[in-house]
Amino acid sequence: MERTGDMLLFMADTLSYGDKQKLETMYEKYKRKMYSAAKRILSDGDKAEDATQNAFISIAENIGRINITDDDALEGYVIAIVKNEAYNIIRAKDKAELYDEFPLVSDPFSDVNAKVFEKEVYEKIVEILRNMDDLYRSPIYLNCVMGYTVKETAKQLHRNVQTVKGQIARGKKMIINKLKEAGYEL
């Protein structure tokens, strides 16, 4: 975890004093939990540290919008981010292996091309989610990615169940519209 700490010291120099304090507080409070969550997914300490580092980079980029007063929601948020980063590492490895295994496939109807298209769509959805306002991103992530029920999602985010249902529905519509704008046919 020393590498992640060194990277945060470097990044912290670019933040305001208040944001730097928030990032350092979050790092000290959640670094072990985040590392453990990533290691459970990746089964590799170095890759888990990479996922943790990537998660803290993402957190640092959005630190001004993060509310650190709600411990439960914050913990769910940082764990969700590090898990997503761990899955990104797996997807990157899988994608590299896929291209190594089938470098000359040109049949537009092949299963490999379908899988690559699915991964491209998935990666585009992840990109859309990352850029989405937290009001919609958190409920969608907890419900659709983490598998929480709407009720569990509402409890985790300390929101009304009907509010979360609406946020998930509106967020999904936003994702579909962004995919259509990017040229994906759904």
What attributes does this structure have?
186 residues; Rna Polymerase Sigma Factor, Chain: A; single chain; mainly alpha; globular; 8 helices
Tell me the distance between the termini.
42 Å
Counting helices, strands and paired strands, the structural category is mainly alpha
CATH homologous superfamily heading of the domain at 1-91: RNA polymerase sigma factor, region 2, helix turn helix motif
Series of H and E elements? HHHHHHHH
Helix count from the secondary structure assignment:
8
How does this structure look, described?
- The chain is an all-alpha fold.
- It starts with a helix and ends in a 5-residue tail after the last helix.
- It has helices at 2-12, 17-42, 45-61, 71-101, 111-131, 134-145, 150-157, 161-181.
- It has a domain at 1-91: RNA polymerase sigma factor, region 2, helix turn helix motif (Rna Polymerase Sigma Factor, Chain: A, Orthogonal Bundle).
- α7 (150-157) crosses α8.
- Residues 98-110 have low confidence and may be disordered.
